[in-house]
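From the methods appendix. Each design record in this collection lists the tokenized structure first, followed by the designed amino acid sequence. Records were kept in a plain field format so they could be parsed without special tools. The example shown here is representative of the layout used throughout.

RECORD:
FOLD TOKENS (335 positions):
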């Protein structure tokens, strides 16, 4: 009891609000999710609630999913002792997962020190030596099979009410972009080089209102993805004697790969990198782009959360991971 009490008190700040129980029925009816029979079967079996707990153990990251019956009180499920228990069990499961590589390495080391038998040792004299099977066409067959597509179901179409909400949200955000562009042009009419980079915002509102739960749509990817990609694209404009056609291709490619490595991939950031790499924009345009990306989070949050089937954002920085900060997570992704 004493150790449990200390554990609860020591983890009170970390555990409070860390676990969110979701209604499985809302996940089944979520227009942004592909229709799968697994969630529907769980809901029909009386399992109505689900919660995920992240773990980071030994360089391995994952999530443990917990289920509860529909009639369970979420206030009881989110009590501090229950949250501490779920987090501790997730860490134990994560430890088992992390030990997999160690077991495989030990098995491989044991196999390397085991003498292998020569397959031709017991063959009769003058018998033909078996030749290894040629597998040159296997990668090609695998590539062709994968190119034909998998067995995943086509995502369902969005209900009419959700499509109308998407229309309202996209119109509101793009109206704000258009007004901001007019304001910048009228306010900085003497500075002809100052302008607002509009095209990436079309992709941004598509993500925010059409794919609200996608990681690329979250504020973390929007802000950090645009910041990193735009800075890389502008940095390439300072490289002397670099052909424009090469810069426009190379700078966005580097920006996209870096953001993917850092876990902050954001498609509009790739589009902005193409525009910024053209050499017709400077750091003021870059800062205006970042500022408007931050401002557009306000209507996206206000409009998306009107619907009971939507939640935006699903997270701000990173999913709960103990005491690790956002920058420590970015550093880990970069390794």
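DESIGN:
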């Amino acid at each position: 009891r004493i150790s449990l009490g200390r554990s609860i008190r020591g983890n009170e700040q970390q555990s409070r609000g860390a676990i969110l129980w979701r209604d499985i029925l809302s996940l089944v009816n979520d227009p942004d999710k592909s229709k799968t029979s697994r969630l529907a079967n769980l809901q029909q079996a009386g399992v109505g609630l689900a919660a995920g707990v992240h773990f980071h153990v030994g360089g391995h990251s994952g999530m443990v999913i917990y289920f509860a019956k529909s009639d369970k009180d979420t206030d009881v499920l989110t009590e501090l002792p229950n949250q501490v228990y779920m987090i501790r069990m997730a860490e134990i499961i994560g430890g088992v997962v992390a030990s997999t590589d160690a077991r495989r390495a030990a098995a491989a080391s044991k196999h390397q020190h085991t003498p292998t038998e020569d397959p031709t040792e017991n063959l009769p004299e003058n018998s033909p030596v078996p030749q290894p099977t040629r597998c040159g066409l296997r990668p090609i067959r695998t590539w062709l099979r994968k190119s034909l597509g998998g067995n995943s179901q086509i995502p369902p179409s969005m209900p009419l009410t959700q499509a109308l909400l998407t229309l309202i949200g996209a119109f509101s955000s793009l109206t704000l972009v258009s007004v901001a562009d007019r304001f910048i042009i009228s306010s900085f009419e003497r500075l002809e080089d100052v302008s607002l980079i509009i095209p990436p915002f079309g992709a941004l509102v598509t993500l925010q209102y059409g794919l609200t739960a996608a990681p690329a749509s979250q504020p973390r990817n929007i802000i950090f993805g645009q910041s990193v990609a735009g800075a890389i694209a502008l940095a390439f404009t300072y490289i002397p004697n670099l052909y424009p056609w090469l810069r426009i291709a190379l700078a966005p490619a580097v920006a996209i790969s870096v953001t993917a490595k850092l876990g902050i991939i954001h498609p509009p950031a790739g589009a902005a990198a193409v525009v910024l790499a053209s050499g017709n924009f400077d750091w003021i345009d870059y800062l205006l782009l970042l500022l408007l990306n931050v401002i557009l989070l306000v209507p996206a949050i206000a409009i998306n959360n009107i619907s009971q089937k939507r939640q935006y954002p699903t997270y701000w920085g990173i999913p709960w991971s103990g005491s690790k900060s956002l920058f420590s997570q970015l550093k880990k992704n970069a390794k």
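APPENDIX NOTE: The beta strands are 22-23, 47-57, 60-69.
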